[in-house]
Amino acid sequence: MPELGPEALLLLVVSAFLAGTVDAVVGGGGLIQLPALMVAFPTATPVQLLATNKLGSIAGTSMSSVTYYRRVKPDLRTALPMAGAAFVGSALGATVAFSIPRSAFNPIVLVALVVVGAYIVLKPDLGQVEHLRMTGLRHYLAACAIGLGIGFYDGALGPGTGSFLVFALVSWLGYAFLEASAKAKIANFATNLAALLIFIPQGAVMWKAGIAIAIANLAGGYVGARVAVARGARFIRAVFIAVVAAFALKIGWDIASGA
Questions:
Q1: CA distance readout (Å), 243 to 19, 166, 240
Q2: What are the sequence ranges of the domains in the chain?
Q3: Does residue 83 register a pLDDT over 60?
Q4: Are the C-beta atoms of residues 134 and 104 closer than 8 Å to each other?
Q5: Within a 13 Å sphere around the CA of 26, how many CA atoms are in the beta-carbon half?
Q6: Cα–Cα distance between 107 and 255 in angstroms, integer?
Q7: 3-state SS string over the chain?
Q8: How does the average pLDDT of the chain come out, rounded?
Q9: CA 154 to CA 151: how far, in whole Å?
Q10: Could you count the other beta carbons within 10 Å of the beta carbon of residue 11?
Q11: Is the distance from CB of 177 to CB of 240 less than 8 angstroms?
């Protein structure tokens, strides 16, 4: 197992706090935390990095899920079935993560981020108020489809999952950003848990680093969720656009540089 030096530990703790904060507001903290793990452990395998990232992320999503639930009171009739489907999808994705390199997904993720960002920018009123587009069984089936598909992606790869969940809930189902963020955190907790249940028995988690980033991610999740609830939908939309743009630039750079 790769060793963790003091400089690498500091990098991981700071990055994990920032990742937890961003993830609680709009998702996608893994695109901050995973690169930090890659720098700290240049010889680690992709599965070790992904599994350790999940251990840190589940701490942040657990904290932000509880904070959102207490302050926003999201409708669990939608959130829990979606989380259940996300759990199944993530478990399936994690089983193939051992053979699929993250780099294979980079072009797909880049296109998705560009489309998502452009859609949000061109529709300034999107997500400001709740206007559900489906009711009854169709609504719940759509929520489960979102959970299953994005859950699979999270188990197999992960970065940007929270952002994709928020976007799908806002654009497809018609939720406001704040309500969408609350539901996304619950689903994201389920995807992290499912992936860990696959990775831990395989010995993929680097525990020292994982526990350190879990504590920092927990603190970041608490701060980020409280800020998001206090500032509301317009703030979340602005952060969403900034984060998606940053992710797109990072992945585009990775593709161009052959990373």
A1: 11, 12, 5
A2: 6-257
A3: yes
A4: no
A5: 25
A6: 7
A7: CCCCCHHHHHHHHHHHHHHHHHHHHHCCCHHHHHHHHHHHCCCCCHHHHHHHHHHHHHHHHHHHHHHHHHHHCCCHHHHHHHHHHHHHHHHHHHHHCCCCCHHHHHHHHHHHHHHHHHHHHHCCCCCCCCCCCCCHHHHHHHHHHHHHHHHHHHHHCCCCHHHHHHHHHHHHHCCCHHHHHHHHHHHHHHHHHHHHHHHHHHCCCCHHHHHHHHHHHHHHHHHHHHHHHHHCHHHHHHHHHHHHHHHHHHHHHHHHHCC
A8: 84
A9: 5
A10: 15
A11: yes
* pLDDT tens by residue, 229-253: 788 767 777 877 787 787 678 778 8
Whose CA is closest to 246, among 106, 157, 104, 113? 113
Burial of 253: CB neighbours in 10 Å, binned 0-12, 13-18, 19+: exposed
CA atoms of 202 and 183, how far apart (whole Å): 30
Q: Tokens at residue 196, please?
A: 């860990």
